[in-house]
Amino acid sequence: MNRNLFNPKTLIFYSCLTLFINSCSQEVDTEEVFADVLGVDPNTSLDCTGIWEGSPLCLERNEALVALKKLDVLMIALEENDSSPEGMNILTAAINQRQEADKKYFEEFYFQARDIYQEASNSIESYNSEKSSNISSQILYLQNLLDTFQLNEAKGLLDKALLANQSNQDLIKIKNRIEVFDEVSSLNINANNELDKKNFSLALEIITESFNLDPSRKDTISLKDKINLEGNEFFFQSFLKEAYSLTDSSDIPNARIAFENAKKLFPNRQEISTARSYISKKSIEIDLKNLKNKLSTSLKNENWSTAKSTLLSMIKINPLDDDSINLLSRVEKLENLEKEISTITKQPERLSSKNIRDNLSRSIANAKSLNLKDENKFLDLLARAEDILKKYGSMVNLVIRSNNDTVVEIVRTTTLDPFEIKNLELYPGTYTIVAKKKGMRASRLDINLEPGSKGLTVIAQCEASCTVAQSSSTSNLNIPSTKITQPIETDQNTLSSDSIPSGNYSRYAKLNSSSFSRTIECNRPTNNRPYKITLQVTLTDSGRVRSADIKSIELDGSYTTPNEDDQYAAVVVKNALKKSRYTVTSGVDLPELFQIDQTLKIPANFCVE
Amino acid sequence: MLKKSIYPILFIFLSFGCATTTPITSFSYEELEMQSQFFSTKLDVNVVEFNPGLPADESKFQDNGLWPELRRAESRRFAVNLANTLNKTQAFSNVSITTDSNYISDLVVTGKIDKSNGEDLHLTISVKNSANKYLIKNKSYKHRTNQYFYDNIRNKGKDPFETLHRAIAGDIIALLKKEDLNNTKLVTELRFANKLNPLGFSDALELNTRTNTYELGFIPAEDNPQLVRSQNVRIKDQIFKNEMQKHYIEFTNNMNESYRVWQEASYDASKKKREAEAAAAASAIIGVLAIAAAASSGDSYDYSTSAYVTAAVGAGLLANAGIKASEAKVHESTINEVSKSFDTQIAPKVVEMEGVEVKLEGSIKEQYSQWQNLLYTIYESESVQSKDFNIL
């Protein structure tokens, strides 16, 4: 059963009963109630189901309830927000209309109730619309009054406006603005005073406080902008001035800091690019001046590495500076030559090596070609180097006594088959003498043949064990000495295990190719790369090979590390060469023992299966 | 006719009647240690991963009852076991397992698995010293374990074929007594130096082409800077080998339990099969005797009967392999997995020299190979003084 469809007569009965009971109450409820217990409840549900489904009467009733809901909302809003006389009148009229409509509702004249509810709603909406328009214009007017400092008039108008719409946020804001108006005005005056005194920071601080109190005050906004603009301009000019001043005093790092500060304020101002160019130009001038001073000092002190780095910096600044480029080339040569020459002169004993002697001679010649004049230190070094080279250019005697059962090796110089005594002439310097015999642990001794000395005697022999020792006995011997001469350059040739070429390989000694090819012994195939090998071969005047030592291996035009297979192929060639014979040119006065450099080209995969 | 029939009988007797493994002689660890205490120096040993003894034709794996993954695992496991045994004798200095017999050491032990079925283990062993001289050349070592070993709870975790490994160790120690061990060490040192610098040490050793052994040539002085460099590199080589041993130990530990279960199950099956075959052979002998009798009486005989009997017994054996076999089956995948993972990849090694790091990657075989190449680089960068070196 739908309880909302009670018989109206029954409802009137209960309503009368309620009124009667209430009338007996001692307390009178003074609050105005526009939806009393006799009125229609706007929250009544809109239910047209069950037996009411499709009923026109039920539909009309629902329409009436919808109109009532709308009216109810409008009335509540009006009562809460509008305490103006106009508003009260409109509300009273609406209450009356609603009561009338409620009556129609209960009489089941739903369509009439609906129309009256709608009429009352229209009246309120029309009033609201008119009022809203009034409030907007009032707000504008109020703002205008505040902008023109008409505070009292603004206060009166605001009070009236608030009566008609107490919850209007714009009016509340204006109310707040009025409350702080005097305080803001005072702050603005202070800020302005500070601005006049060019106290930009303080002025900005005060105006910011003022702005936070009333962000809508036009005079505040205007003053704030003015302070910012004048302040920025002031600081911009100050930073620029400082940047120029620091540049002129050659303090480029701080000048750049001041410049950057100015740039942050007005990055696109013409003054910025002008200042940048000025600072850069001055900076380069200062840098070049400093670099020239540094260069001059380093050249005077013959500090070539500093001079080189200074010149490189100068060329970086001015890549077209030909003078600096030419000077750099000379300085680099001086640096390298000084390094080479001083390294050798510090260890003159290394001059026993032909390569070292050759390098020193070459370096001295190159240094002289540079026409040295003011380089006093370098000239002293050259004089010293020449002196050392001269001293180390005279051979010294080395007598080696042995037991005719020991192989004696002078490391990287020569290997001597067993003998009893040898009188050798060697260039001064350090040598390592090794006494060795198959199956026995070798022994080594480093000796130093002092230039200009009478020489040394060394006993190198393997008996119970191998020993090498310097002898205190004098080296005056009545046996002829053998010069360990410089290697004789030979021609190059290409060799392979199956094709041994013929022809002259040396001006003085020719390799017997058939003896060489016969002695090549490969115990395993090699996967070696092609390379050029130079061996130092010691020959007797009859063409017998005394020793063969590998001097260098040249891979792909440069001296690099040979791998295992490269090395194995080299050992095969070395061993073959040791067992080979040479044909010595007749009619040439050669010593009993002499050395040649034999250069050979080793093809790839030298040993094949 | 009867005389002719005697030959097959004798053949069968010889083939099956004596199908036992001759016991090998082995010493206790204490005895082996005693024997080696008069060695002038202790040698380093490389035990190379064993040849698994698998036929080249994979289709024969099944016919021969071979499980290839297991055999490959055993090829390392037995090498580890032998290395452990050699270590326990206290007769050697560093015992390392390697992947290649060409890696230089004082002694290099190589081996091949001829038979391994839980009951029998047959290995062929060779031992060469650094001079290339064979101390043991292709010697066959055989050992058969028994049920008692597996049943005895005191043997839990023990290797049933340790006796065989001790026999090998005993042979090596006995042979080393006759060798000049200092000479062997010197040859090793020179071979290593020659490998790194063939030019510098070309005349240090001479290869006797007749015996294919190395003989001492001109031995470099002890203070030869190149030799000192080589010695420094050799120390690093030993550090690397020691590092690699961890992988072998880990590998053996990972498969220990599974392998033990398999081994015990395999023992049962192998023993039953062997006994069945022996029984079939005995039947065949009776049959042959019957043939001989029949032949002498002129009766005919179906010669395929004995083969049929053997086949029938073999099938019965498989069907009655029992609980142990099914338990072993569970561990099959573990053995397969451990074996395969060892073949694929081990943790990369980062070798740090003087602040420069070199990474070795891949399987243990590949890392060993990369290391050989790296030795040259180390030698090149080595000064007389040993430099900073770490394996991370």
Describe this structure as you would to a colleague.
The complex is a heterodimer of chains A (609) and B (392). Chain A is built from 16 helices and 15 strands. In chain A, strand 5 (429-436) and strand 6 form a beta hairpin. Residues 1-37 and 486-505 of chain A have low confidence and may be disordered. In chain A, helix 2 (56-81) packs antiparallel against helix 3, helix 5 packs antiparallel against helix 6 (169-196) and helix 8 (218-248) packs antiparallel against helix 9 (252-265). Chain A has helices spanning 8-23, 56-81, 85-106, 110-147, 151-164, 169-196, 200-213, 218-248, 252-265, 270-300, 304-317, 322-346, 354-368, 376-391, 513-519, 564-578; strands at 396-401, 407-410, 414-416, 421-426, 429-436, 443-449, 456-462, 466-471, 482-483, 488-494, 509-511, 531-540, 545-555, 582-584, 593-602. Chain A has a five-stranded mixed beta sheet, with no helix packed on it. Chain A has a four-stranded antiparallel beta sheet with strand order 3-2-5-6, with no helix packed on it. Chain A has a four-stranded mixed beta sheet with strand order 10-15-12-13, with helices on one face. With 609 residues, chain A is α+β, with helices and mostly antiparallel strands. Among the domains of chain A are: 3-134, no CATH class; 304-391, no CATH class; 396-483, Immunoglobulin-like, CATH 2.60.40.1120; 488-602, no CATH class. Chain B has 392 residues and is an alpha+beta fold. Chain B has a domain at 349-391. Chain B has helices at residues 2-17, 29-36, 60-63, 68-88, 147-151, 162-176, 181-196, 225-297, 305-319, 322-344, 364-381; strands spanning 43-48, 92-98, 107-116, 120-129, 134-144, 205-208, 213-216, 349-353, 356-360, 389-391. Chain B has a five-stranded mixed beta sheet with strand order 2-1-3-4-5, sandwiched between helices. In chain B, a hairpin with a 4-residue loop joins strand 6 (205-208) and strand 7 (213-216). In chain B, helix 2 (29-36) runs parallel beside helix 6 (162-176) and helix 8 (225-297) runs antiparallel to helix 10 (322-344). Chain B is globular and about 70 Å long. At the A-B interface, helix 16 of A face loops of B.
